[in-house]
Design brief:
By secondary structure, the protein is mainly alpha-helical. The protein has one domain (12-97). Helix content is 68%, strand content 0%. The N and C termini lie far apart (65 Å).
Length: 98
């Protein structure tokens, strides 16, 4: 039996919000993981948005609540990453001073 892989389709609003997160300083890989999309797809959307060629599809509607949830998840992931870096730096400098 052959399984056909169905391509996901996203609304323009979803794509624009994802692009906005990346342009706002979020790490593309983290944002893509949180949103549940491939990193390369997100990078393509950013590139197409820069050229003004980003288009959307109406198959997968995304509510404003889902967009806000995705934004908050991306921000939480970024803050956790910053926290982890600060923990490691603190441990490093604590070892050096003793």
């Amino acid at each position: 039996m052959s399984e056909t892989k169905r391509r996901a389709r996203y609304t323009l609003e979803f794509k624009l919000e994802a692009v906005r997160l990346v342009k706002g300083g979020q790490v593309a890989a983290v944002t893509a993981k949180i949103l549940g999309i491939p990193k390369q797809t997100l990078e393509n959307w950013v590139r197409l948005d820069g050229k003004g060629q980003l288009k959307g599809a109406g198959d997968k509607p995304v509510s404003p609540e889902q967009m806000e949830l995705a934004r908050l998840r991306a921000e939480l992931a970024r803050v956790k990453m910053e926290r982890d870096i600060l923990k490691k730096a603190t441990a490093y400098f604590a070892r050096e001073s003793t």
